[in-house]
Amino acid sequence: MMRLALPPVLKALTIAVALMAAGLFAQSAHAEKYASIVIDADTHEVLHARNADEARYPASLTKVMTLYMLFDALKTGEVTLDERLVVSRHAASQPPSNLKLRTGSTMTVRDAIGALVSKSANDVAVVVAERLGRTESRFAQLMTVKAKSLGMNHTRFMNASGLPNTQQLTTARDLAILADAMLTDHADYYHYFSSSSFQWAGRTYKNHNELLGKVDGVDGIKTGYTRASGFNLMTSAKRDGSRIIAIMLGGNTSRSRNAHVEDLVEAAFTTLTDPAHDTQLAFAGVLQPVHPNDAAEPMLNGKRISVIIAEGGGDADDDKLVVAETAPAPAPTPEIVEHTKMETPVEPFVQPKTHIMSVSEYEARQMQIAK
């Protein structure tokens, strides 16, 4: 068949339109955030799934793997709850959410767990990473190896905190596997995720997981947020002897995310407590969130958070605030610097030297355990 030659102007216009369409498609694909999955933790039956195998950013749900690795170390005796961890310059430089730790200060492993669970502190995540992996980047390699050994085949970690990194990817299904592994492998430590608050240096930090104490049976585990990921939540709940795991990624706001996960939890228990109830019918009533791929910037007193931070006000510690995990914090005032000095006194302390396996040794060990 003869192909008709287009006039130069029309040909250029056609190419331009094609390029524009491709660009819009790429932008749309990059903007996709929403995904969810609900599983019966006892039978591992998937009760519900939407975009469960699509690549997503984990944000602070990354810290669940950091904690899993820490619990591994506690279980083997490599570390103890009372061991003091030293804060490096790199750890102290992490942006909010953080505890404003000072270089050279120390904290116990027990406090580190509380800070990660309730405060989602990025500086504490690095403190743990450097203790277990010598460097954060090396620890991220070990995290990825561990993820693969658990069956999280579509997950790659690049840091210990979940701060933005385009190469740090996971899926809702992989995160459900992680939650299940936490419940199975570290049941003795899971109670930390039920803590309603964490105290440090005279301050009390409320757990960011607002479903605790609100939704019947919910006893953990972690929230997360960055602009690229939207509002994420990994949760688990137990009622009448049945336990479910629910993952939601890419919420538009923390409130809509919480409401959606609550609906997922209720639908799950409706099917588990009433075998006659159709599972698909139960979840059909759980509507996909409005504008799921448009994670809006949170407001505080009617003003956008970025504006508040730019004006030098507001508390950038909460990981629900947009700039908390995505932009550098403003220069601290002298008063804040003094307060930080009081919060994290520097005491002479040398971290005990311990043998740290190479990545290849660790991988071989995990493969052996997996068998």
Could you characterize the architecture of this molecule?
Residues 33-252 form the Peptidase S11 D-alanyl-D-alanine carboxypeptidase A N-terminal domain. Keywords: Carboxypeptidase, Cell shape, Cell wall biogenesis/degradation, Hydrolase, Peptidoglycan synthesis, Protease, Signal. GO terms for molecular function: serine-type D-Ala-D-Ala carboxypeptidase activity. Belongs to the peptidase S11 family. The protein has 371 residues and is an alpha+beta fold. It has a single domain (33-330, 337-348), classed as 3-Layer(aba) Sandwich (Beta-lactamase), CATH 3.40.710.10. 40% of the residues lie in helices and 16% in strands. It contains twelve helices and eleven strands. A five-stranded antiparallel β-sheet has the order 2-1-9-8-7, sandwiched between helices. Strands 3-4 form a two-stranded antiparallel sheet. The chain is globular, with a radius of gyration of 22 Å.
